[in-house]
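pasting for ref
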Amino acid sequence: MSKSNILPINFLLVCTVFAYFIINNGGTFRYTGTLFIVLSITIFFYIFFTTRVEIPSNIFVVFMLLTCIIVVTPLDFEYSQTYTLINIYILAVLYFFSVYVSQSDGCTRDSTDILDGILYILLFVTSVFHIINSLNADSQYVIFPAIGDVNYTAVFIFMIFMIANKKKYISGIILAFLYGIYISTSRSFLLLMLLFYGVKLVKYLGSKNRLHIREHFPVNKKVYLFLGVVVLLGASIIFSYIWVYYVSNTGYVDHREGLNDVSNRMRFVSLVHAIEMIREDPQLFFWGCGSDLFDALGVYSDGTLPVYMGVRVVQPHNSLISLLLKLGVVPALLYFFLLCGLVALHFKKENLEYIIPYVINAMIMHSFFERGWLIFWIYILIMTEKRSGWMKTKKKKRFI
């Protein structure tokens, strides 16, 4: 097999992440999605006509079919009927590119370090700028304009932290710890950091005690991952009903004054509300509401905020249940299976601390298994890890 060139793929992922998280003021995926589709189609044909890398026929057929549909379908990402199609297209592109990258040799993968470094510098500098700007403005919370939420800003900092860990950029580690100690008010950030180092500790103890942790997991790991997703989905639903009807039903404290506060009450009520909507409406059960989520919830449609079970209605704070409501049950289960196939390509020992925290946090926040966040996460999983340790390398540690 000839040497594969993965620089165009890295270029696509870098451009998409940069456009969505830095340029994309307001958070819409419309323009970023158009950029992703145009670049991905161009790169696909470049790979097909200029390399001899073996492309599985089923992947090629699915990609071409989706490409033809995308081309003849108006690129209106807010139109609910195209929502499922766009998300499956993104999964197909990420799957194909992940297979292609896995077939490349170490030399070509190392050549992407420059692009990875450029993206990291852009994300790092932008983060520092927004943090300083928010502190100078005496803002109550640090919120990046392109993200628009304090908790998602915290997750964005954690994503930079993951890149820094993979590439051994000490500046990203310092930024994350300073942010967590002095700035962050997000419980999600604390959870992510604890899970990250918890997984690393388990791996370290396993190696010290000669416990057998496989470098690569069984061939049918995507089936196990899908079963794991089904278990997480079922556990999320059951836990939400228990919390709503048996924990917070007799009262709850104000925001951030305890675990049983109004924020968590609202979070789990949103999940119960979504399940009840799906159960009662056949249209939502089979087809979902697509990008018309807020209209389906009755949020912002007439300027008022509806109330359900005594709290304000918000979209489901769970990435799996949110997709159930947006896609419909059957399309969502298909989407989850395809997603597990994608993650299975990267599910190995060296990536566990980059997968487990992200997935667990996605159970209490929405949108992490779709669009911009999914692309960013898979890009981090694709990245090659700098093998030398922090202190063992003979070269000077990189600060950037």
